[in-house]
């Protein structure tokens, strides 16, 4: 926050900055997890990655108490009206993360029954790539939303979807060489 320190630890700032700081530090996600990406979403909230560090661990399964929808997994045509209905019930200002290849593009499910990208039917603010995305990448996506809230003024009417894409920030490392693979204590022969 852009603040000024006064004697006796008194801080001054603008109301807008305090409001935005409170909003970005208390995101309440509405998880719409339909497939394997949902497991990675659960891992993000668990102790190892600890989404609570960013104030966004209070998952709500009631749309009226949520302001961040995370769509994790594939969405079928039959399911889409339900997703839209839940989105409409969420309180403004609200944001949407499309987590994983299936939610963003249909992934490998190039079939008539799978929606080939939820952004055809609802606004998406941040796309998190991967199949599944790692928890770090999802956290990058949530932090992107937080940066948007920080830079935003107080909300004025409906917003347009922001359509940002997060790039993975980690580099996969190869398996260490020289470690034998065993099954039941016996070496694996390939
Ligand atoms: S993107 Fe991959 S991990 Fe995520 S729901 Fe689709 S198939 Fe599963």
TrEMBL record:
InterPro entries assigned to the protein according to its UniProt record, in alphabetical order: NADH_UbQ_OxRdtase-like_20kDa, NADH_UQ_OxRdtase_20Kd_su
Top-level enzyme category: translocase
HAMAP family referenced in this protein's UniProt entry, alphabetically: NDH1_NuoB
Subunit comment: NDH-1 is composed of 14 different subunits. Subunits NuoB, C, D, E, F, and G constitute the peripheral sector of the complex.
Gene Ontology MF, one: NADH dehydrogenase (quinone) (non-electrogenic) activity
Name of this protein: NADH-quinone oxidoreductase subunit B
Naturally occurring in which organism (per UniProt): Humisphaera borealis
Subcellular location: Cell membrane
A biological process from GO: aerobic respiration
Keywords: 4Fe-4S, Cell membrane, Iron, Iron-sulfur, Membrane, Metal-binding, NAD, Quinone, Translocase, Transport, Ubiquinone
Cofactor binding mode and count: Binds 1 [4Fe-4S] cluster.
């Amino acid at each position: 926050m852009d603040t000024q320190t006064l004697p006796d630890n008194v801080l001054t700032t603008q109301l807008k900055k305090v409001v935005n700081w409170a909003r970005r530090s208390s995101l309440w996600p509405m998880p719409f997890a339909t497939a394997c990406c949902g497991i990675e979403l659960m891992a993000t909230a668990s102790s190892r990655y600890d989404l609570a560090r960013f104030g966004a661990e209070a998952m709500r399964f009631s749309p009226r108490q949520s302001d961040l929808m995370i769509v994790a997994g594939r969405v079928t045509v039959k399911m889409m009206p339900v997703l839209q209905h839940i989105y409409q019930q969420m309180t403004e200002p609200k944001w949407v993360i499309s987590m994983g290849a299936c939610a963003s593009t249909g992934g490998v499910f190039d079939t008539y029954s799978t929606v080939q990208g939820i952004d055809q039917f609802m606004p998406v603010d941040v796309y998190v790539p991967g199949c599944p995305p790692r928890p770090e990448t999802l956290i990058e996506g949530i932090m992107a939303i937080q940066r948007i809230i920080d830079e935003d003024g107080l909300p004025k009417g409906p917003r347009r979807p922001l359509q940002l894409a997060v790039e993975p920030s980690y580099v996969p490392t190869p398996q260490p060489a020289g470690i034998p693979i065993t099954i039941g204590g016996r070496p694996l022969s390939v």
